[in-house]
TrEMBL record:
Domain of life where this protein originates: Bacteria
One GO BP: amino acid transport
Domain ABC transporter intervals: 2-247
Record keywords: Amino-acid transport, ATP-binding, Cell membrane, Membrane, Nucleotide-binding, Translocase, Transport
Gene designation per UniProt: metN
Protein's organism: Streptomyces lavendofoliae
Similarity comment text for this entry: Belongs to the ABC transporter superfamily.
InterPro entries the UniProt entry points to: AAA+_ATPase, ABC_transporter-like_ATP-bd, ABC_transporter-like_CS, ACT-like_dom_sf, MetN_ABC, MetN_ABC_transporter-like, NIL_domain, P-loop_NTPase
GO MF entries: ATP binding; ATP hydrolysis activity
GO cellular component: plasma membrane
Chain's role: Part of the ABC transporter FtsEX involved in cellular division. Has ATPase activity.
Protein name: Methionine import ATP-binding protein MetN
Oligomer status and interactors: Homodimer. Forms a membrane-associated complex with FtsX.
Length: 349
């Protein structure tokens, strides 16, 4: 539904060049909630603003629902109408809501429809439908100043949906909200995604947002995407930073000559007593150093750091047993020669 290839954005600022996006390739599938996470300055806002051409990319392409927006923008003024039409199929939600304080809630939602030339009666009907959809049917005549932050964002979401977009872009939509309101807005986005088949691309600096609603995620750093995939793919990728952030498991080996292993359970493997089978089959004592269970994108997933007696070379068979039983296994080795760093991670494929 959204594809960027080699997307690059260089800002010229006081004679200096800042590369905010450095060849970003992103692929968001139809109907998924895709989260882009990264620290401040990573390039997240630049990315989302380039996706709907609010910002002109320096190079690279953006295709949304089969339309190459960059090619339309490149055709100059005459393509303005086509570009506007394509952009009306992309809704956008902002961190600070961007509502007009002098207009009622209903009139705020009608604004994009006015611009699209929809007649008064149709505008009004659509705005009321949308208010109902976001749970604010009783607030049509209120002004933004009379609403809570969460209600304002619901209006922002309703306005973004006015043009019946297939894609919703969310620029830190919950960053200005308290944790409980954040949860309810994320739930609303999830519900809209499911009910309307809406594809959602959101940017955030909070891992909890990714955890609560994303099917897929990408990690950005210094203008580049350094990891991306479905949550299940990320959890299956040895050494994935995102997987580690989603599921931080800690714990250090109790001594030398121990093998420390991170095990990820999801799907069917999560319900099998694999660890006790391992212990019985090989007659070994297993210590649990750390564990976390959580729901990611609506699916139960668990991670555990366990310790087996003996060095890795002696545990190749038990580790193979875990893999054969459908668990993702990442071996974490203590590096004796770098004690200051504690457990240095070395991935054993
Ligand atoms: N209009 C601009 N002019 C010059 N530099 C800019 C402009 N917009 C962004 N930048 C720079 O581009 C880089 C990426 O910024 P961007 O806002 O895309 O990152 P971000 O990940 O969204 O950060 P934040 O979470 O703080 O908004 C930063 O170094 C920023 O200073």
């Amino acid at each position: 539904m959204i594809t960027t290839t080699g997307l690059t954005k260089v800002y010229e600022s006081r004679g200096r060049q800042v590369t905010a996006l450095d060849g970003v390739d992103l692929h968001v599938r139809e109907g998924e909630v895709f989260g882009v996470i990264g620290q401040s300055g990573a390039g997240k806002s630049s990315l989302i603003r380039c996706v709907n051409l609010l910002e002109r990319p320096t190079s690279g392409t953006v295709t949304v629902d089969g339309t190459d927006l960059t090619a339309l923008a490149g055709r100059g003024r005459r393509a303005g109408k086509d570009l506007r039409r394509a952009r009306s199929r992309i809704g956008m939600v902002f961190q600070h809501f961007n509502l007009l304080s002098s207009r009622t809630v209903k009139d705020n939602i009608e604004l994009p429809l006015e611009i699209l030339g929809v007649t008064g009666a149709d505008r009004s009907r659509r705005a009321l439908e949308l208010l109902d959809l976001v749970g604010l049917a009783d607030k049509a005549k209120a002004y933004p100043g009379q609403l809570s932050g969460g209600q304002k964002q619901r209006v922002g979401i309703a306005r973004a949906l006015a043009g019946k977009p297939k894609v919703l872009l969310s620029d830190e939509a919950t960053s200005a909200l308290d944790p409980e309101t954040t949860r309810s807005i994320l739930q609303l986005l999830r519900d809209l995604n499911r009910q309307l088949g809406l594809t959602v691309l959101l940017i955030t600096h909070e891992m909890d947002v990714v955890k609560q609603i994303c099917d897929s995620a990408a990690l950005m750093r210094k203008g580049r995407v350094i990891e991306s995939g479905t949550v299940a793919e990320l959890l299956a990728t040895p050494g994935s930073e995102l997987a580690h952030e989603l599921f931080p498991v800690t714990g250090e080996a109790s001594g030398a000559d121990r093998t420390v292993v991170d095990v990820t359970f999801h799907g069917e493997a999560a319900t099998q007593p694999v660890i006790s089978q391992l212990s019985r089959t090989y007659n070994i004592d297993i210590s649990i150093l750390g564990a976390a269970m959580d729901t990611v994108g609506g699916r139960q997933i668990g991670r555990m750091r366990i310790e087996l007696p003996g060095r890795y070379e002696e545990n190749v068979v038990p580790v193979g047993f875990l893999r054969e039983h459908g668990l993702q296994v990442e071996v974490v080795r203590a590096e004796a020669h770098v004690p200051a760093q504690g457990l240095a991670k070395e991935i054993t494929k």
